Amino acid sequence: MTEVCAPEKQWLIQKTKLKRIFHNLSENDFWYDYGQKEVMMMKLQVKLNLNRQTLNRLLAELTKE
């Protein structure tokens, strides 16, 4: 059985919670090539109509829950 490391597990939880809050998000919105996470984050900002600070704050709050 493969164990997911802490950051990957945290990201899986955040993605799931974001998809529950924003029903217009799909798994494709979270896909990115290695080293291209910044591009994915910018696309999320546009799709959710959030600035980067707000998106980061939201992700941090989802981690606390």
Radius of gyration: 12 Å
Quaternary state reads single chain
Number of strands: 0
Could you say which overall geometry the principal axes of the C-alpha atoms support? globular
Distance between the termini: 27 Å
Instruction: Average the pLDDT over all residues and give the rounded result.
Output: 90
Residues in helices, as a percent range: 55-70%
Q: Uncertain runs with pLDDT below 50, 5 residues or more?
A: none
N-to-C series of helices and strands? HHH
Task: List the total number of helices.
Answer: 3
What profile does the largest beta sheet have?
A: none
Sheet-strand content, in percent, reads under 5%
Decide which structural class fits the backbone.
mainly alpha
Topology:
Elements (H helix, E strand, L loop, with lengths): L5 H16 L15 H12 L3 H13 L1
Task: Describe what you observe in this structure.
This protein is mainly alpha-helical. It has a domain at 26-65. 63% of the residues lie in helices and 0% in strands. It has three helices and no strands. The chain has helices at 6-21, 37-48, 52-64. It is globular and about 25 Å long.
Record keyword descriptors for this entry.
single chain; 65 residues; mainly alpha; globular
Brief digest:
The protein has about 60 residues and is mainly α. It is about 65% helix and about 0% strand. The chain has a domain at about 25-65.
